[in-house]
């Protein structure tokens, strides 16, 4: 909601496979973020991007990769190197520079089977 | 019902009562704070924010209080309704890119 679209809502992956989560925004915000949420826990930052063609690692970037080729799009790839990928993934967008709220999508629940 | 003092992971409140949700933030340099509400299976929704040059801010049925001396933030919900049942997160920002989130408080409203 709020102009952030994540797809799919549910995703199942076999061990050893890479999978890409989609995030699109129509808010015209420069900054985009990926967070991971585990049951009963807060949100942890995976990657963020403040401008097209630039992104930085967050607190738990290992086993993940991103790209930011367009302002509207910030896909997240969960690689086979991520040892515990089952989680709820949240994408957000906001104005760059901080000091403002981030708007979240509805999340993708990834399950490794 | 209210949680006073330390952060509590859960809060049960009678419908119609006021709720107080507490949050201790970590960085004295943080200058911007947000409360989010997250319903089951959904993304967090913005509720209210406050900057460090303020002590109190009011919205519709919600009030946020900031005590910088003890690094404490609280969210007050007036006349709690069943639709207020959710997990509530506080987040702090130090003026850069990053929002750091607390562990969240699960609010359950009793009919």
Describe the structure.
The complex is a heterodimer of chains A (113) and B (111). Chain A has 113 residues and is mainly beta. In chain A, 0% of the residues lie in helices and 50% in strands. Chain A contains no helices and 11 strands. Chain B has 111 residues and is mainly beta. In chain B, 0% of the residues lie in helices and 51% in strands. Chain B is built from no helices and 10 strands. Chain B has strands spanning 10-14, 19-24, 32-38, 45-51, 56-58, 62-67, 72-77, 86-93, 99-101, 105-110. In chain B, the strands form 2 sheets. In chain B, strands 1, 3, 4, 8, 9 and 10 form a 6-stranded mixed sheet that branches. A 4-stranded antiparallel sheet of chain B has the order 2-7-6-5, with no helix packed on it. In chain B, a hairpin with a 3-residue loop joins strand 5 and strand 6.
Summarize this entry quickly.
Chain A is built from no helices and eleven strands.
Helix/strand layout:
The complex is a heterodimer of chains A (113) and B (111).
Chain A: E1 4-7, E2 10-13, E3 19-25, E4 31-37, E5 43-51, E6 54-57, E7 64-66, E8 76-78, E9 87-94, E10 103-104, E11 108-112
Parallel strand pairs in A: 2-11
Antiparallel strand pairs in A: 1-3, 3-8, 4-5, 4-9, 5-6, 7-8, 9-10, 9-11
Chain B: E1 10-14, E2 19-24, E3 32-38, E4 45-51, E5 56-58, E6 62-67, E7 72-77, E8 86-93, E9 99-101, E10 105-110
Parallel strand pairs in B: 1-10
Antiparallel strand pairs in B: 2-7, 3-4, 3-8, 5-6, 6-7, 8-9, 8-10
